[in-house]
Amino acid sequence: TSIVGLSKKVDRLVYSGHALRQMFARSISTKDVRAVVANAECVAEYPDDRPFPSELLVGFSNGRPIHVVFSVDEKNRMGYVVTAYVPDEKLWSDDFKAGEAHDVPDLQTR
After folding, report:
1. Are 18 and 110 a contacting pair, CB within 8 Å?
2. Of 15, 36, 44, 90, which is the most exposed, with the fewest CB atoms less than 10 Å away?
3. What does each of the 110 residues of the chain score in pLDDT, given as a tens digit?
4. How many CB atoms lie within 10 A of CB 62?
């Protein structure tokens, strides 16, 4: 099952410390992340991530592209925001779906 589909079934979002630091540094709000997760498209899948598989999602908030690495704990209906960032236009295609930067390391190292 796609994480994008599951994202609409979560009751709560949990942000990693890394995600919060990156969001603060990049002026990305929790409202921005919720908007992306609610209307996201999957750019890349990371099925081997632990404790839950994750996906790199792309979406827009107020016209600004945002990438979110997101995973879902289906049993507890919780979504996990691993990180969030504004993709670099120099590294990504015009639609921010293809680029040389979407090899995201293991969940434990993020």
Report:
1. yes
2. 90
3. 455 555 567 888 999 999 999 999 999 999 999 888 888 888 888 889 999 989 889 888 888 889 999 998 888 889 999 999 888 666 655 655 556 544 444 333 33
4. 9
Phi then psi dihedrals of residue 82, to 5 deg: -80, -45
Distance from C-alpha of 65 to C-alpha of 88, rounded to nearest angstrom? 10
Q: Is residue 69 a contact partner of residue 56, using CB atoms and an 8 Å limit? A: yes
Which are the contacts of 83, defined by CB distance < 8 A and separation ≥ 6? 16, 18, 19, 22, 68, 69, 104, 110
Residue 13 DSSP one-character state: E
Q: Which two tokens stand for residue 57?
A: 């999602």
CB 8, CB 76: distance < 8 Å: no
DSSP-H helix ranges across 1-109: 3-7, 17-25, 30-38
